[in-house]
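Morning, I've got a small favour to ask if you have a moment. You're getting the sequence in one-letter code plus the fold written as tokens. Thanks so much in advance, here it is:

===
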Amino acid sequence: MHLFIDHRTEYLFSEPQRRLIQLLRVTPSSFDGQQVIDWEINAECDVRLLPGRDGFGNETHMLYCDGPLSRLVLTTRGEVLTENRHGIVEGAGDPLPPEVFLRQTMLTSPTSQIAEFAKTTMAKMDHIASLHLLMEALHKRIRFDPDESHVHRDAGEAFAEGSGVCQDHAHIFIAAARVMGIPARYVSGHLYRREGAIEQPAAHAWAEAWVDDLGWVGFDPANATCPDEAYIRVAIGLDYRDAAPLSGARAGGGTESLFVGVTVSQAQTQSQS
């Protein structure tokens, strides 16, 4: 699939800021089934962007901007070719062994409810079959509610409430898989909605789990499917905080407001617009 991505982030500050420092994880890498043709990051002010790579292998950019600044707009645009590999990730050049992703974090710490759910759902089956069952069970158990888009809520809270967004689905899946001794990690990226190029209020999120003889395999419990050619994989980590598109600090008082708009379109749709 030939996909175009337009990812716009706008910060508004109630008081002018003296300085901004942001870590950007918005640039995808090429691997089997995903070929980045073009990618660019633009800012509506004078900024410095320093490219790099973090410990998980994610492509990063450090952004530095001197004030006074009352508004920051970042636009990421790109073009990617994708293939359906049925969720199997190959050629991504992972720098860390799978065992690293057995470590729980504050956002993925399993409650007794999650542990019991995992044991009941995944008992007495091989890993790939049990992971598919876990994905489908979570899709039914956790109702998607876009009004609960609190990315810092942990897996236990979302599971107890029975609703959440894609980040919550991913965190619960990861917590449950790790309880069962299966390495699992968080993935941030983009999803092309086949109903058309609809602006989305955030990037998408799913999980990957390690399966012997297959390697890393993606699971999207929010949609009860393994990632296919409609998915663009951008960054990975132990949880959301390791793979968040933007994180950073500012020097200045007041409050900030954040607005995000993501549009993923297919090539023929793009050419007709």
Observations:
- Residues 190 and 204 are 5 Å apart (CA to CA).
- Residues 127-141 form the longest helix (15 residues).
- Residues 2-81+245-272 form a domain with the Immunoglobulin-like fold (CATH 2.60.40.2250).
